[in-house]
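INFO batch 0412 | record 1 of 1 | parsing
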Amino acid sequence: MLILKLTLVPLALLAFGIVERLHGPRVAGWLAGFPIVAGPVLVFLALDHGAAFTANAALGAYFGLLPWLAFTACYTCCSNSWNWLLSLLASLALWIATACAALWLQGGPRWLEILPFLVLVGAIAFYPRGKPSDEEREYVWWGLPARMLAGAGLTLLITQFAGLMGMRWSGIFTTFPVMGSIIAISTHVQSGHHAVRETVAGMSTGLPSLAVFCIAVHALLGRVEIWPAFGLALAASCAVHALTWLLFKKR
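INFO prediction complete | emitting tokens
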């Protein structure tokens, strides 16, 4: 299992990096909306802590989309004027504040569960308005290895310590912007703030598949066995991601 934690996400980041160089940051961002990090993390939680723990963590991951969107929105705005480090620090500060609010919302009335979906719809409507840039991009040799190392380290930390934080915080950290931060920072360093906006636009369009995956896992775990639950959740996520591709192409 440790080998999977150290290799699955880095290999996905490698694939996204290749896609970015071939098709641009917006397509790579759209692919990053797929639950390539949250999916394996929830599987690891289910194997380590059981179905009940993971079902609640999946709901937390769904609410974790709120701080995820806050992080990317903040980084996009800050990258217009600041370097990557200042943009990252400001975005992380907003992520922490929004994560605390999302934690509180989980304990509120059930109707609040619609809030992440509404915010996601707003993000989809807002971000894709940016026009793709035709500027020439330069890629440094260390860009992909740095992404892969950072992805492996962040994934290992989240899965190792998630159980100590409880179900809700575990879920929030499941959708911590591992790929979002790594891709945004490396894109910012290598290609500038225009490419960051394109990447985040793609991410916001592809993110509904992650939301559907988390809600499906939350609804199915405890009612069916672990592997069928994750299989059905993955199938639903793939279907939604295919639909978002139609929206992506239209925009």
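INFO post-check: The chain has one domain: 2-250.
INFO record closed
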